[in-house]
């Protein structure tokens, strides 16, 4: 009798443990990707580009909705953030997110990039690989959802890659058929600047918006001095004054961030870290320094699709003055520039209403450019 009772107890505890594990896994998935509306469908597809894999995530409610392709920053597996913050757009759009061949879940199956070939080799992580990978995603999007408009939503260096793709697609016969119908470019990185110098650029723009002549003169003089001799050449009094300005001008960044968002963001970084080794991380840093090059990107100044830029005035990693100069030079069928005085580099996850307004703007002008 005691033996039978013991067996029943063991079986009961095992069943409870199994259910606890299942609950934990489901809770983790919902925590990372957001709760899934019963009307939404989720799929994952691994695309092939040569010897490389491209892990792709699809969320949609109908195959008859326009498609948004999110282009992430290289080396960042941002799908959980996109799903958590923009998942509800799947009611009206098909959302397609992916990891570049050397990034996050895609990199996990392509470790030979860093380990066999050397991560710092720019011939491995190249412009051709970036544009070709994106073309593969666009081709898949158009094939799986035929007849639907396809739009880019690029973030940070991902926005720069969208610019390159659109420029090439305007001139390459093979890519012309894979041209998208419009693009929204958020916190686009046109030129690499160090954080301290970037803050001065950001504060100069704020001083201009406030007609603060003394502030404008001070920041312009600081930038001239940095351009000639570097940031470290500034004396302690000048650095202290910059710090005082910063405490006033750049405070209260990201007011839209919630505790839940920050938890998901932390989890994303934790997940990403398990994919990478030190050699790979150094290689990506070297590559991004190479890629964010004004000589490369300023030449991509003509493409025939509607384009909208979104930027935060407090963005000191990608100063708004740099992207505004680029914006004024480009030629396209339609362009617009949205900016917010209180937002910084994380505007994609802080100002969702900007993105939604830009989508409406983009769709309207895409119809005017190409028809229904």
Structure commentary:
The protein is α/β, with parallel strands linked by helices and 372 residues long. The chain has 15 helices and 8 strands. The chain has helices at residues 2-33, 79-86, 104-107, 112-115, 127-144, 157-169, 173-176, 195-209, 213-229, 236-249, 259-273, 278-291, 294-297, 320-329, 352-370, and strands at 41-49, 52-60, 67-71, 94-98, 150-155, 182-186, 307-312, 335-340. The chain has an 8-stranded mixed sheet, with helices on both faces. Strand 3 (67-71), helix 2 and strand 4 form a beta-alpha-beta unit. Helix 2 runs antiparallel to helix 11 and helix 5 (127-144) crosses helix 6 (157-169). It is globular and about 65 Å long.
| Average pLDDT number | 77
Q: What is the share of helical residues? A: 40-55%
Distance between the termini: 76 Å
Strand order, main sheet: write it out.
1-2-4-3-5-6-7-8
List the helices and strands in order. HEEEHEHHHEHHEHHHHHHEHEH
Structural class: alpha/beta
Number of helices: 15
Brief account:
The protein has helices spanning 2-33, 79-86, 104-107, 112-115, 127-144, 157-169, 173-176, 195-209, 213-229, 236-249, 259-273, 278-291, 294-297, 320-329, 352-370; strands spanning 41-49, 52-60, 67-71, 94-98, 150-155, 182-186, 307-312, 335-340.
